[in-house]
Design brief:
By secondary structure, the protein is mainly α. It has a domain of about 180 residues. About 65% of the residues lie in helices and about 5% in strands. The longest helix has 24 residues.
Length: about 280
């Protein structure tokens, strides 16, 4: 069942992205998110789509795996698109019936918003979680935050906590699915009735899910204590992080992408995204 849950899981490989320094990859993800939100018109969004396709190709991750990672966000994407279609006004009317008014600008805006969300989730996942092991991610985050340790902030513990939380997202999703299937086998109904009734039907899911999450946390803490884990003080690392030409090449590629998006926003004519 866990094979059907792609979000937050590491996909083993030896591609160009897999071999990037995790410290740089964390910074690249932040930079890529900024670039995504800089895009304003159709042409700059087309360039972002090309960048996402390029990331998929060089990561060597199957498209099916990436699309599975988007499945939990289908409702949010659909809801966002509907809001933009029916609430955004424009000059070109497509549908004008009763209280329903749909404009061409609303459709285009909804499409661009959907593209933004899909690229945001897929692109950042490819750059980080799909191509970085949890251990490497912990090391990279800890090294980036290491200056904060000078003011006695628990950098190592914070990095470990964030990585464990990210690692257990697929596990909690799997556990939720198991509990729902068990409740359905006992006659529970989560799909019919009013909104209040369906919300109450979730209570038998939430209680065992919280109990299972606390039990897993206790088992993990016990396992770490049995392995003499006492935090980051005095710890050594088997693999020392080193930057390489790949990190420089990736940084230059992101700078070129950012410049392309900004130039297309300024000089390329086309519909601009309504904020």
């Amino acid at each position: 069942m866990k094979a059907d849950i792609a979000f937050g899981q590491y996909y083993e490989g030896n591609s160009f992205l897999h071999r990037l320094d995790p410290r740089w990859k964390i910074l690249f993800v932040i930079f890529y998110i900024v670039i995504i939100f800089l895009a304003k018109n159709i042409f700059s969004f087309a360039l972002l789509i090309l960048s996402a396709i390029f990331l998929t190709l060089i990561s060597r991750i199957p498209l099916r795996t990436i699309l599975r990672g988007l499945r939990p966000l289908v409702f949010i994407i659909f809801f966002t698109a509907i809001i933009n279609i029916f609430w955004l006004k424009g000059d070109t009317v497509l549908v004008d019936w009763w209280i329903i008014h749909i404009y061409l600008e609303g459709l285009i805006n909804a499409l661009l918003i959907v593209v933004r969300v899909v690229i945001l989730v897929a692109g950042t996942s490819i750059l980080l979680t799909y191509t970085t092991t949890p251990i490497a991610l912990t090391d990279g985050l800890e090294r980036l935050l290491s200056p904060l340790a000078k003011i006695h902030l628990p950098v190592h513990e914070f990095s470990m906590m964030m990585t464990i939380a990210l690692r257990f997202i697929p596990t909690l999703v799997e556990e939720t699915e198991k509990i729902m299937n068990a409740q359905k086998a006992r006659g529970a109904d989560f799909s019919t009735g009013s909104l209040v009734r369906r919300a109450k039907a979730l209570i038998p899911i939430l209680i065992p899910l919280f109990i299972s999450a606390f039990r897993r946390a206790e088992e993990l803490a016990t396992a770490m204590e049995c392995r003499c884990y006492t935090g980051g003080k005095g710890r050594t690392r088997m693999n020392i992080l080193h930057s390489s030409w790949r990190d420089v090449a990736a940084l230059l590629a992101l700078c070129a992408l950012c410049a392309g998006v900004v130039l297309l926003n300024i000089f390329a004519p086309g519909y601009a995204l309504a904020l």
